[in-house]
Write a structure and sequence with these properties.
Elements lengths: L1 E4 L2 E4 L7 E10 L2 E8 L10 E4 L2 E4 L1
Antiparallel strand pairs: 1-2, 3-4, 5-6
């Protein structure tokens, strides 16, 4: 998709995340909107190692 902002042109690739529609969340300007949930959530395989005041811990 080609966009333009303040005279500068740039291209944007839309995200390809598959989602499922949930229940109705509310109404905005006379139109109902729904929650959208991702079909799967990628989990990080790395662990974060921190050290604070000489004590190491994982988060």
């Amino acid at each position: 998709m080609k966009l333009r902002y303040r005279g500068l042109s740039y291209h944007v690739k839309p995200s390809l995340i598959e989602v499922t529609e949930g229940e109705i969340g509310g109404i905005y300007r006379a139109q109902s909107w729904r929650y959208h949930y991702p079909k799967y959530v990628a989990k990080s395989s790395t662990t974060n190692r921190f050290k604070w005041r000489g004590i190491a811990y994982l988060r």
